[in-house]
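re: ur question from the group chat, yeah i did fold both. here u go
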Amino acid sequence: MKSSKIGNEKNRKLSNHMVTLHQRLYQALNLGIKNYDKEGKKWQCTDIEIQRLAVRSISAFVASLSPDILRNPVIESSIADILVALEGILQSRNEMLLGMATTVTVKLVDILGSSMLLYGVSELVQSLSSLLSFHQSSVAVSCANVLRRIISKLNPRRFKNHNEVWEIVVEKRNIDCIICNLHDFVFGDQTIEYFEEMASLLKTIIGQWCPSRYDVWSNAKLLKALEVACGNPNSNVKVAVLQLYSALALCGYGAITLLEKGESFLSTIVNCMGSSQPFSVRAEAFKIAQFLMKSEQGCLRITKLYCEPIMKAIITAMDECSYCGKASSDQGILLMEACRLALITRWAGDHHTYLWKFGVDRSLLGLLDNNFCKNKKSTSFSSSREEIDIAKEVLDSNSNGALTPYIWDVLGWLATHCREDYNPKKEGKLNCFNVLIACACLVFKDSIHTGRQVCQNDVSYTSVYEPASRAVLLLIFSPCEYFATQARHILSKLLISSTDHLKFLLNFLKSTSQDTFSVLDNLKTVTNLIHLVCYLGLPEYQSLVTRNEGIKILSTFISWCLKNRVEIRRSRVAPHLRDIYGERTCCWVEREDWEGADILLFYGLWGLAELISNSIRNSEEVSDQLTVGTSFKGSEIQVLVDELQKIFDKSFSSGCRWYSAYILSFFGIYGFPDRIGHRLGKALHEKEHADILLRLSNEESVSVHGVILIMRCPSMLPSGAVSLDSTNFRREVRLSSRVDSKTLAKLLEFAYLGFAHVGKDPVKQLKILAKACNFNFLSRILCRKRPNWGAIIPSYDFTPALGSDGHQFSDVIVEAKEKAEMNFSCTTCPQSMPHMHVHKIILWLSCDYLRALFQSGMQESQSQIIKVPLSWEALEKLVTWFYSDQLPKPSSGCLWDNMDKKQQILQLLPYVEICWLAEFWFLENVREDALEVVVSFLNSSRHLCMEIIQIAAELSQWEIVDVAATYMAPMYPQMRDSGDLESLSHELVDLVRVAYVRLTQEGTSNNAG
């Protein structure tokens, strides 16, 4: 059909009037266009009158164009020649001529739309770019308008066009020019239209090319000018500034820079959200707020200052639509942005309190049915059946389909982060929230019946029903007892005689675990998993699932997920969460969603956790299997335990790791094993470098390491502990008579390793001791409480011990190589050499070389200073790895790209040094981490290879040398001919040459194949 339509357009006959205009056009164009063999057609006439004639002819021709004749070959040929003429004429400096030419160019681009890119636009962009700073503002405005339209239509996937235009933008210094123009408006006398077009063009450039962003958000003068401009009473100026802010926030560093402007900036944004502002201004303020609160850190930072006014602005925008009926176009956009911003409810915080205060439940229900709040504001519902009937009416009258997924998401997040004792009865908010719960449960029920009928690959099914089903799930398992009880009650009423579907879900999962499904099939699996977990939240269905081998089915499904590692994020299932700017963002380092990309595994684990906890709680036969099964290696239970322990790997999402730990707690395994815990655990029964003596009431004593205890359980080291200066121990801590040696041993096991195996009997005593010691995480996990949504995996980061907290236990200094230009000072001691106060036990556990040194009995083993042959920058990173098992990364993204070459080399050099030292100190893990950093940055910044290959060769780091040589191979002929390789040794040149030959041979082989 499409090709037929295009064929009809190409064959469409031109009218007589159009033919006449075409003849007149070419009479004028032929006076200035010359055809060259190599360069093609060029406009070569500088006569003003001829150029005016050409522009008038072009204007008449363009005015008569219509979309249905654009594909006609005569028209296509004419447009190509018109562009050639305009490219040449726009190089004139005659004000009147340029005014005419830019005006007709705007009209041409407007009618061509996206088909503009079918023609070569680079030359036109070049001509227009030169006029952005033209003194006649109307010309500059028209040029900015055309450039914005062209650039906005560029597709990054069409690399040639995209790259060519970017090169012109850089060559013509367009960004600097636009910034000057914006400054001229704020502190000069340019028109509002001038400012709007320039700001809009800059926003478009920033949106298209990540490398353009640094020069804008790092320009303090521009940011100051924009802040002043945002105070302009004209709403169009405010909209232009807010849109530009949103574009800057596409870069994570840009968002941080805006946030660092503090209250003056944020107050401007918050004021733009106010109900006194036009809809367009408020919508743009909500958009920039979404970017700034994209991360939990950003959300907390803003709500700490302006929580109440932002929440009030969101609720006001929702309510205005609810009470006014059908929304206008601008108001519809405002409402959508308000709902998107309301998704900050995914983070816990004070903003939840204010949303409840301003009646978020009433507002959400008003979005579903704007007549509800008017007609039934004071109605009291006497029964759940009445609430269900009202909910049906609400859903039948719902006309805001695009907003509905946001309503369900906000409802779910409100329930998830609600405090346990919240009771809407006391606050007069019972009716609205009860009806919302009933609405969600009705959609859940409908999704069950619809789900049995849809095809496996029906994406529309999951996009419609997943948000509501997920909201029901979060309601059922809400920490708020009222919401959880109400949701279970309503759902139980709606799911009477629903055992057939429950058996269908179990059989579906059973078959899924036996096959390899496509991604689309797995989208359906997500909704089915949510349904199953919801059923498990209803007591009347739990035993049925257990009797139908639910534990075995879910255990097998989890094994299938681990084997196939199918990655699906929630945004794949719920399209309303797809960030339209996601592909264009850069430099954002966010904590991923709690369920991450392991959404199938996450819901499978949640379901298994509910089954096992219910079985244990109800003392059914499964609990006996669980209790006995742990002692049989090779049994199904032991296989499950082994599979669950694999999930502790950091590549899995936090939610999966938490639920794995929760399930394992029923098997007597508590905590989160990891690499640094394994390392520190070696010191658990070692007296080497122990400096604290814990003495029990029966005079038994346990030697421990102060730095580990102060970081993991500081309450065990009270300030009044007895000092033992005459012994190897610095302190003695006398413990209560209620603490026995076995319980203490388990607490210390957890403190050192990060996890512990605890039998049934010691758990009670360990709970008491953990609570007394304020060991909150251990207390919670021993209570086997369901994980709170969004809970962070406990950190085993010991780097705070390098500060004041751990200084009292510091017993050795590591000293870096002297650096002439470095002015080093220490807050602890007067030593001027670059150094760090550290702890022997941490070094002893982390490095075989240092352990051997401390045990050698040589003079160095007794020294208070260890000289490390590294630069200060490298030593800092190495010590950080010792204390956290994490090697700090260099600056990346826009910050890295805008460093000069020398700065980039200085950033990478410490990692090459660490690779060298790691070989001598037998630090294989840290060497792997450092090598990964060097290879990754060389891959993206190959211009550094020349310097890095020499540094690596000097340090005998031949693996890095080989990588650098491989990356230099494609450039070998040019570097050889230009003499760039002369600074390298003959050996290194040979390595690059060999890499080039290998690359050439591989290319030849591939072509032959």
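okk and heres the other one u asked abt
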Amino acid sequence: MKKKFLSFMLAVALVCSTQAFSTIPYVNAAETAGVGTAYYISSRNGDNGNSGTSEGEAWETLDKLENVTLGPGDSVLLESGSIFNGFIHLQNVGGTQENPISISSYGEGNKPVINCNGEGIWYQDYGKAMDNSGHRSSGYVSSAILLYDVDYVEISNLEITNKSNDFDYFSTNVNKASGRMDRTGVAGIAKDGGTMEHIYLDDLFIHDISGNLQDKHMNNGGIQMNVLKPADENATGIARYQDVKISNCYVKDVSRAGIVVGYTYQHDKFNGAALADEIVKKYGHTNLVLEGNYVQNAGNDAIVAMYAYQPVIQNNVSDTAGVDLDDGYPGYWQSFCAAIWPWKCKDAVFQYNEAFDTVGEGNGDGQAWDIDWSDGTVYQYNYSHNNGGGAMLICLNEAYNGTFRYNLSQNDLKCLITFQGNPLAKIYNNVFYVGGDLETAVHHPAAGKRSGAGYLANNIFYNVSTNKNVSDDGWNPGNNKSFKNNLYYGYSDEGMPGLPEADAITADPKFENPGSAPVTVNEGGKIHDRSAFEGYKIADNSPAVNAGVYIPNNATEDFFGNKLTGIVPDIGIHETGIEESVSLNVYSDRYLIQEQDIRNVPQGTTAEDFLKNIKASAKAECKVMKGSEQVAPDTAVTEEMVLKVVNKANEQETKTYNIHVVKVYAEYATEGMTATAGSFQPNNTTEGNPSYVLDNNMNTIWHTAWSGCDRSEAWISIDMGKEQSVGMLKYVPRKAGGVNGLITEYEVSVSTNGTDWTKAATGSWENNSEIKYAEFPSVNARYVKLWAKDSKSQEAGKVFASAAEIRLGYEE
């Protein structure tokens, strides 16, 4: 953010005031050309009569900063071993990229301590309704350090507390613990300065923050940074964060959360499951990194990234999140927390984190990890154990396009995975270990928390507990989960639910030492070295070696940092690197390969580029052939050509694939089009009416009657308003809310009058929420009908059909 004026503000405590900050006269400080001025403060050796500009001339108390205006390159240095009672609040100040403002320490010894003790009170107001009316949007907050509309500020090597006198709260009624003033160790606010840039917090010890137990989006907890509605957004720009890094901080015994960045007044721009990159980058936060932090005994969530584009959350440790829930405070309206998770983020990456002992008692969630109303979330290379709610939660209908891969769960509790009404999540190459006498189930016991969709492949489910959960858990509740090439050890015992794969591998995976991953926190709260998990490496003769299924757009390395080689991965988190036997099967991250057909090859693709997108065994050679001749690399592939795969060791052993070039279609605009259906659910604003397939809104869907319909009624027809050429139908399935109505077998018919129909295409679609196409020879028509010859249903005996959007197109 660009600021004309820079100022420093140390707020005095506000009582019964509606102003966020008090007015303080500012005095310009002496400047050191080019590098700024250092201000020294020592509670041990300082004197407020000194100049404050050298160690020998240090001031004694923080309030001397009231008369300082900070600028680029200035620093505030607190002497190690000092203890200060007070707070530091900055507003409308900024350094530069070359010369940031810094607050840190000097000298040898313990970190200097700032005890806020409920002072440093300011007023927070989002200026608009929250996304959930139950959340508080305004109120007084006490913060030891407040960064309000600042830029290029770096804070490091401090100890911070903000305690309350709990006698005042507990002497009459324990409910008052939820009525405390919100408190923070470090608070950040972006509001009237546009983009708030370059805020770095490093090596802070923040503890004993006695905040409110339930105010989720107030600045309340160890570190919390949020975004308020500007007074004049047209003048100052959209408030948001850019380049925030919180690293190597130890956050302990805080209420509510440990580290949270950053709820925003722009929350209503993030509606829908699929989040557009341009929307998230414009209204959300960019270059957010949370790494190397240790959060212990957070009252609720440990670490949360919110409304951010491609945030990176790595190398963090959550130890016993949710301790306030364990106390069972009455009247606590939202008793949920997980350890480390996103909210309304796009393409967030969570990697190399550890989470353990998350409280399960009194906690509606309690998992280590949670894909929560975000798009494109990836969890990889993480370790969880002894979390009360289990390893993983995929939370509700806007937890879209999530991936959980190469993670280790050891002795997590309650259940392994919670599929809470989510669209398809990809869960592959993980290890789930259950030992001791645990009753950990595969799925959550609550029906609503096992209903989501999942693709589970190449995982090892390993259960040697002496008290296995032998209830009728079932592997596929909702009938919307698919299982491929997993290994199930200990799950084929008598009384256990039947396995979801007919030819499932049930043999011992031959781990080096299963159950041996560390169960205590590492020294200094740091993550463990990968060598601590070598008990989960597999032997060279393991049945998991080269037994997985190919995963498109897979990771590049395994849990231990070994490069993924070949085309068929090992099952589990360890890639042995053992050379796979020759295979003439090919795979692609770009094209659709069905048996011996390669589809969706764009027109104009050269043979060279085509082969770059084909993955084959190292022992096989791939050639693009036209008849008996190999085509030149710069030749565009056509449907007259084939892919020939040859065994290098035996050229007589070959396999041929047909190449299907995608025709180029243009979509018709929906203006003037109408839709009718054989059945629909009436009187619902988001689900039912056939017109919803033409409204450009992914959150509304056409749905047949909820009571079910006859198969012959499971159709929808589009009237284009006039007769014109048509050769393509695009079907966009529902993205959330279950799988009812997903069309898996279809018939497309066309008509000029809406009465006489001609069949144009039939086929099948996979059971997922990805966009589907039906192509057919171009024909002049006014009406196009899509009939669901087969479709998914979560209710036995009921027929449903549904669609979020439908488009028609013509060949260019």
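fwiw on the second one: The first strand starts at residue 38 and ends at 41. Residues 586-662 form one domain. idk if thats what u expected
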